[in-house]
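Hi support team,

I submitted a single chain yesterday and got back a structure, but I'm not sure I'm reading the token output correctly. Could someone confirm the output below corresponds to the sequence I sent? I've pasted both exactly as they appear in my results page.

Thanks,
R.
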Amino acid sequence: MPTSRSYRDSCGVARALDVVGERWALLVVRELLLVPQRFSELRRALPNVSSNLLSDRLRELEDNGVVRRSAPTEGPRIYELTEWGRKLEPMLRALGDWGIDAPQPPSPSSLSATSVLIFLEGAARPDPEAPPMDCSLELDGRVWTVRVASGRVQVLPGAPATAAVSLRTEPATLSALLSDPGTLTAACADGRVSVVGDLPVVERLLRAVTEPWSGDRASAPQ
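Hi R., thanks for writing in. Yes, this is the structure output for that exact sequence:
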């Protein structure tokens, strides 16, 4: 059942936690940062939450004005962030940066496509003088545009009109490649990665994380 627990504390931090502090709530928000999703898609991205608990969290977030449901003419309803809910994005990204140094969870653990893509956006520092390009990336059956331009990487839902290269893999494999781009050739050879186009283009994208032009260093989630 949805919870109505409160800290009964007037501080803004406590009031925020009254809204999004329940278990799984912020992870639901994370999954909706890049694209609206159906219940089944959220359930797949969060395999360790029960359907009933996910329904409760979505209902609470909707009641609190963080999430809204749209009703398409065909198919199941789609969940998306409200304008107020989207204001959580910088805080979630900062929390993810902070959590990189926290211990890994016990195995087996999950890693969603959204998690890896958010990391890629935040950690990649490509050469700002390099010509812009769009790459097509397929993760877990969904296609994304990875846009590299002006020294940053942007992830957009849907396929690009023209792709410099197309890459298909799984979130855990992409995370491993972001940690060690040198394993790309082996991953292609054993079928964990499929690339259409030039491998050097993919390598440049991956090395924008491990060898950022600014000299910063980052570690990919596992």
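A quick pointer for reading it: Residues 113-210 form a domain with the Nonspecific Lipid-transfer Protein; Chain A fold (CATH 3.30.1050.10). Let us know if anything else looks off.

Best,
Support desk
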